[in-house]
Amino acid sequence: MKIYHTGDWHIGKVFLHKSFIDEQREVIGKFLEKVESDMPDLVIIAGDIYDKSIPTVEAVGLLNETLSKLVMEHKRKVVIISGNHDSADRLSFGSEMLEDKGLHIVTDVVKSISPIELEDEHGKVNVYAVPYISPMKARAVFPGEEIKDHDDVARVVIGKICEKLDKSERNICIYHGFVTNSGERLQESESERPLSIGGSDEVSAEYFKDFDYVALGHLHGPQKVKTERIRYSGSLMKYSFSEQNHRKGITSVCLGEKQVGSAEMSCNIEEIYPSRDMRIIEGSLEELLAEDLSEAEREDYIMARIVADGELYSPKDKLDKVYKNILRIEIKRDATRLEGEKAEFSRANFREKSVLELFRDFYAEVTDMELEGSKEEKLASLLENMDMEEF
Amino acid sequence: MKIYHTGDWHIGKVFLHKSFIDEQREVIGKFLEKVESDMPDLVIIAGDIYDKSIPTVEAVGLLNETLSKLVMEHKRKVVIISGNHDSADRLSFGSEMLEDKGLHIVTDVVKSISPIELEDEHGKVNVYAVPYISPMKARAVFPGEEIKDHDDVARVVIGKICEKLDKSERNICIYHGFVTNSGERLQESESERPLSIGGSDEVSAEYFKDFDYVALGHLHGPQKVKTERIRYSGSLMKYSFSEQNHRKGITSVCLGEKQVGSAEMSCNIEEIYPSRDMRIIEGSLEELLAEDLSEAEREDYIMARIVADGELYSPKDKLDKVYKNILRIEIKRDATRLEGEKAEFSRANFREKSVLELFRDFYAEVTDMELEGSKEEKLASLLENMDMEEF
């Protein structure tokens, strides 16, 4: 059985005032192309389908279109869980009616305790799709259990699943959360919203040891946890500059025959590249402006980190001429350079300088030339005639 | 073919700060009971499914549950159009996937030009489901056409349908708007939102003359337009006090064999009663308080119109003891009574009266007794000792 494991689509995401719906349409389009050529038996989307509990009309449209293609055109089986960004109730619209079309949208944790039963040439595959649920809501669902944090939620829910697990069959678990192996450091991103304020988000990977594959959602970088069988697919595209070095794509899993202990399994990442990458550039303004770039690189989403000691004159206007999609500019004050030749042009002593002196510094900074004598005279006479109280 | 025609469910409606979701669950439950016992071949919901373009989670849940029951449990064919209150894009989620489950959610006016084809023992039935579209949006969809108002929209869309209409077959049209027959006065309600500001909402019934049945939505009172075949089902429950005398329910239509001109047709209203009615009570406060009421009548949603000439002392508190669900209180000044015995207690001359006189009037009004001499003396001495500037 070939499985496409993806998640954290965050459809409708806005980052730094920029809507990424067009980029999402692009990467989801590339995902659909891979589905069409590879024809996986099962597509898993492990939560955070939408970015907001009330998604935009465009986001609803894109998901609708995508699921329709998967189910109607490609006739693939699809299992979706809701993540911490999704409204379970909104996402579940139509879910019961869509089940026998092969689309399972699981948003009710109680339902996740019974498997979705699939089959291939090696026999049955049980899919346990566990949607995100907060500890508070989980306490209401399982009143007899002691649930303080996310680890307790997983202990209770996965525990109930494992009570009835037939280990002679192949079993897949889908889960949305922060699953860790003690001592192992996971790759986190700035675009992941913490699951709890103050309390611990972490869930022990130990609970998942009896599954043949665990398809995780929540972290945006593709990675394994503890074993090859417990994996985050990561998001389909970068949602923060902290992800600039991530390899984004789909985790493609081949699940073979059940052996003693667990099923044969192999996986690889099917990478997906958007036409516009997201990356950080760093250097002096001159260095950033002088970069030798391809047309495509000019179009990338850029965070420019300008290393500077002096004042900068319209850095955004200048960078915009070279980079078409700058999302953020940061100025990094370079302490080592401050010691050097340009140190006199600092804010430190500007109050002691005359307006003429300040302008002379500014002119030199912007043009890299000294203010000529004749220009300086003109300026001086201009300044004399002005009401200096305005300064 | 038996058809259940309903519409204007306005799920999630809030009226006078009161959510009606529980009442909606109740009347939709009664509708489902009728479906279960009557098993109509087709259920039509003629727009304004939700009350808001972004429905609440509860509203989404109730519609989802209802449609799941209709389609999964009762296996009925269902055709829905979006109305002026619905977001076409949000309502259409899953629509393509749900079509072969027998659920058609039509929100795209272009699709409405091709029929949904059904069949019964007498042959084919073509259903043209025309969603609401504003004249502005219609101009973008049909750029070659001159569209100024809703009548133009209907002329163009219904015109395109009629171009290809096979009049030897039976044809049903579903439409959401203000369809009128010139000279005929329709029953309107306060809960219907005007379709245009300033311009005309009206659409000529003439366009629909070739259909065997026209299932209309928008007006909340069940009524026919021009002929028996063009009908508003009205809403399932009252959404304003202007509807207090409406008979609410489902229009149940029997569509028989095609004859020369049109098909055999008969219809009746299957009434639905919520456990709490909505009605206006009117009379003096004493009359309203003295009404002989059943337990159920005490629970009704009430607008109390108190006919009064003098001041009223805590009318809401008093009425709340008798009527459990008062949504609005209006005071109706009775000009005829003002001439009578209580006329002296009016606001007109209160500035000329002393505080003691004002209190004497107030006491008489509230208690229906004269202020006793001893009490009046006490009050007078109290008032003397007070700093009257506070008044």
Automatic annotation (TrEMBL), chains A, B:
Keyword Nuclease in record: yes
CDD domains assigned to the protein according to its UniProt record, in alphabetical order: MPP_Mre11_N
MF annotations from Gene Ontology: 3'-5' exonuclease activity; endonuclease activity
Keywords annotated in UniProt: DNA recombination, DNA replication, Endonuclease, Exonuclease, Hydrolase, Nuclease
Family assignment from sequence similarity: Belongs to the SbcD family.
Function: SbcCD cleaves DNA hairpin structures. These structures can inhibit DNA replication and are intermediates in certain DNA recombination reactions. The complex acts as a 3'->5' double strand exonuclease that can open hairpins. It also has a 5' single-strand endonuclease activity.
Record protein name field: Nuclease SbcCD subunit D
Organism, as annotated: Andreesenia angusta
